[in-house]
Write a structure and sequence with these properties.
573 residues, mainly alpha, disordered C terminus, Cyt_c_oxase-like_su1_dom, translocase, heme binding, metal-binding, electron transport
């Protein structure tokens, strides 16, 4: 194959027909199309995100003054519990894993759908009833033990509401397990011919690690919640200290899942970052294999760090030392990803589109959360700041800064492919500026609140904390306002926006080689890997030098006779 032929192959879409515009009713149906399911996940989770944001605004309004002038302390605890649960289990996890994972994975690997389409639909349709149960729990004696639901507190406050909260989480956990199994089989068994593991887009590596974590960790949380339900409703004493139960065992079961859950939330977003940054910097990803293997390393290490959440529970010194070391070590593969993104940006021809702005914003705020995470890995420091606002700041810099910024970047990047319409860049940049300023204004002053001695999970506090809390509350309101230009942008663009070309960003991964939006079967024929997915700015002659046996590694025909002729020609040379 000559270089001219290679160039022509790179420019030809795999499905040149006109895009198929879907009927809006299809998104409310039991569809087995992975693209429809992905958008169902994204829209549903964003609705829950808006609800969680409203709760957060109420919470911060209460904290704007030292007195209880908005809600009572009891209602505050219920709002606090519901906010944390919604943001983690109904927004970040289903949006990143279910939403972008479902839409992108089959397209990125050249498959026509997920391995188990009906199971995929069932996994999604478990989410709305699970979310509704959690929300309904607020009206039947709201759970007030926080999103961790530690016993014995969770056993004595809001029994009916607590039980509904647990049942809702069990439905969401079942959904995650089914989705994780589906992703593993799809990625490992349904890649287009010629795509080896070392040719996969990095988002697929991230989803591979995420799915493995989900299958290993989620059943442990489910088991702990089932035992907690028995204590709550049947009078057993697995975790109830009044009956010789051990509440610390529940903490072990909870955090064995819930610390890996941090990476279940973050890994898909990190995979999205590794797709977005090279496209908008027009440079090959820096350290492809290191980034790919770092996802697997994070997944493995995250299973042996859970007890750093329990340094104040009386754990033995040797246990503290072990988990302190493993927690610090897990920062290494995470740092590899950050340095890869920075290395990719360095010297690139950066296009400051909204997707890239959110991606660069993520790097800046996630690094702050990562540094504070390494600080809390040290046992003496963790004991000092435990249950303080330092933990609140760290949690939000990692989860909101490290996940929500990336989810926004992903929406701006793949919205044209999902809908066939372009988002308005001016509204997008307004959205970014308001989000970035509001986020840092809301959470950065919390580090100073720690120095002054403010504890978390309280509605009433000493007046000396009032000024900084007021600043945090103003930032929270600004963060809430920032969603308005985004909602206007999405709704208007989806209906009336400029029609998107098949490949508006000149990407090299396979999802850009089909129409916008893609047809039900994704590709008319088996897609061809025209170039390596990250060979941005690499000339074809240079690509030949970088590849095996003179041929560019990703210039592969899916026709068996073409592949055989190519192999024979390479052998003769």
């Amino acid at each position: 194959m000559t270089q001219v032929q290679v160039q022509e192959t790179a420019n030809l879409p795999a499905h040149p027909e006109e895009p198929v515009m879907r009927n809006w009713r299809e998104y409310f149906s039991f569809s087995t199309d992975h693209k429809v399911i992905g958008i169902q996940y994204l829209v549903t989770s964003f609705v829950f995100y808006l609800l969680g944001g409203v709760l957060a605004t109420v919470i911060r309004s209460e904290l704007g003054t030292p007195e209880t002038d908005v809600v009572s302390p009891e209602l505050y605890s219920g709002l606090f519990t519901l906010h944390g649960t919604i943001m983690i289990f109904l927004w970040i996890i289903p949006a990143g894993t279910g939403g972008f994972g479902n839409f992108l994975v089959p397209l990125l690997i050249g498959a026509r759908d997920m391995a188990f389409p009906r199971l995929n639909a069932v996994a999604f349709w478990l989410v709305p009833p699970g979310g509704l149960l959690i929300i309904a729990s607020f009206f039947f004696g709201p759970p007030q033990a926080g999103w961790t639901s530690y016993p014995p507190l969770s056993l004595v406050m809001g029994q009916v509401g607590e039980a509904m909260w647990i049942f809702g989480l069990l439905l969401l956990g079942t959904s995650s397990i089914l989705a994780g199994l589906n992703f593993l089989v799809t990625i490992l068994k349904m890649r287009t011919p010629g795509m080896g593991l070392s040719d996969m887009p990095l988002f697929c590596w991230a989803m591979l690690a995420t799915s493995g974590l989900t299958l290993l960790a989620t059943p442990v949380l489910a088991g702990g919640l089932i035992l907690l339900t028995f204590d709550l409703l049947a009078g057993t004493t697995f975790f109830n200290p009044t009956g010789a139960g051990d509440p610390v065992v529940y903490q072990h079961m909870f955090w064995y899942y819930s610390h890996p859950a941090v990476y279940i939330m973050i890994l898909p977003v990190q995979g999205m970052m590794s797709e977005i940054v090279p496209v908008h910097a027009r440079k090959p990803i820096f350290g492809y294999l290191a980034v790919a293997y770092s996802s697997i390393a994070i997944a493995c290490l995250s299973l042996i760090v859970w007890a750093h959440h329990m340094f104040t529970t009386g754990t033995p010194r040797w246990v503290r030392m072990f988990f302190m070391i493993t927690t610090m070590v897990i920062a290494v593969p995470t740092g590899i990803k950050v340095f890869s993104w920075l290395g990719t940006i360095w010297g690139g021809k950066i296009h400051f589109r909204t997707a890239m702005l959110f991606a660069m914003g993520l790097i800046s705020v996630f690094v702050i959360g990562g540094i504070s995470g390494v600080m809390t890995a040290a046992v003496p420091f963790d004991i000092h700041v435990h249950d303080s606002y330092f933990i609140v700041a760290h949690l939000h810099y990692v989860l909101f800064g490290g996940s929500v910024f990336g989810l926004y970047a992903g929406i701006y990047h793949w919205f044209p492919k999902m809908t066939g319409r372009m988002l308005d860049e001016n509204l997008g940049k307004i959205h970014f500026v308001l989000t970035y300023i509001g986020f840092n204004l809301a959470f950065f002053p919390m580090h100073q609140l720690v120095i002054q001695g403010m504890r978390r999970r309280i509605a009433v506090y000493d007046p000396k904390f009032a000024d900084l809390n007021l600043i945090c509350s103003i930032g929270a309101v600004l963060l809430a306002i920032s969603t308005l230009p985004f909602l206007i942008n999405v709704c208007h663009s989806w209906l009336y926006g400029e029609k998107a070309p098949d490949n508006p960003w000149r990407g090299l991964t396979l999802e850009w080689m089909t129409t916008s939006p893609p047809p039900p079967e994704n590709f008319k024929t088996q897609p061809v890997l025209a170039l390596h997915p990250y060979h941005y700015g690499v000339g074809l002659s240079e690509a030949n030098l970088l590849s095996d046996q003179e041929y560019p590694r990703s210039v592969l025909s899916t026709e068996p006779e073409d592949r055989q002729n190519r192999d024979q020609e390479s052998s003769s040379k």
